[in-house]
Amino acid sequence: MINLKSLRIVDEKQKMLVDISLSIKTSTALIGESGSGKSLTIKSLLNLLPENLTCELDISSDFALNSDTIGFVPQNPFTSLSPLTRIKNQFFCSEERQKELFKLVGLDSTLLDRFPSEISGGQLQRAIIAMSLSNNPKLLLLDEPTTALDTTSKEIIIDLVKQISTKFDIKVLFVTHDISSIVEICDDIVIIKNGQVIENGNTLKILHSPTHSYTKELIESNFKYRQKRA
Predict the structure, then answer these.
(1) Which residues are paired to 2 by β-bridges?
(2) Average pLDDT in the 103-130 region?
(3) Nearest to 200 by CA among 211, 189, 187, 212
(4) In what order do the strands lie in the sheet with 54-61?
């Protein structure tokens, strides 16, 4: 288990941006609107916060948390890779391992020779997931990984993450504003607003019986939007 006992992030004016705690037993979703502190939380775990922000992090885990044990899938696949470099040259592993990972995420290995702009957004996000698995991570951080994708590609990515986390026993922190995307993936859910945890617990329990008005609003708006898109 990963126990984030305390995370505090302040800006140069000592304004508190994030002040939370959470646990990742198997798979946890961090849910909130834009600007709620979700991405800052991810960046703090990756040691990628801007220099003007100060972070106090107290965390414990069953394994060492570093670049070798953490995989990361960013929000926008179209801006995550160099557009002028073939996909195979953006991996940090052998050609054999690349082909193995592409097979794992359901991609033909011939796509490794292409440039990012030559494949679809859904394929590109799967390629990035393959890259994130190259070091056999024990924790996978996903920052809004389906936001830039169409409905079909989104469903493929969600199913893929579920399969990978189960097959390889990888812990998952899935950051999103889209509650409907994590129902089948995350056992636990943390609702965040203005850098504070509003509600947390078992995903299905909170979705069926939310106690905070903010959580109720998020759930209603998410599923109403999903029904309109269907």
Answers:
(1) 24, 61
(2) 94
(3) 189
(4) 16-24, 2-10, 54-61
CA distance readout (Å), 172 to 40, 140, 166, 176, 228: 17, 5, 10, 13, 29
Domain over 2-79+136-229 is classified CATH 3.40.50.300: yes
Three-state secondary-structure class, residue 21: strand
Instruction: Please list, residue by residue across 66-104, b when 16 or more beta carbons sit within 10 angstroms of its beta carbon and e when fewer do.
Output: eeebbbbbbbbbeebbeeeebbbebbeeeeeebbebbeb
- Specify which residues 57 forms β-bridges with: 7
* pTM of the complete model: 0.90
* Model pLDDT for residues 128-177, shown as the tens digit of each residue: 999 999 999 999 999 988 887 888 888 899 999 999 999 999 999 999 88
Which residue ranges make up each domain of the chain? 2-79+136-229
CB 140 within 8 A of CB 165: yes
Residues 93 and 227: their CA atoms lie apart, in Å, by 42
If you write DSSP's letter for every residue of 66-126 in order, what string do you get?
A: STTTEEEE-S-TTTTS-TTS-GGGG-SS-HHHHHHHHHHTT--GGGGGS-GGGS-HHHHHH
Quote the CA–CA distance of 210 and 218 in Å, as a whole number.
10
Q: Which tens digit of pLDDT belongs to each residue from 22-44?
A: 999 999 999 998 889 999 999 99
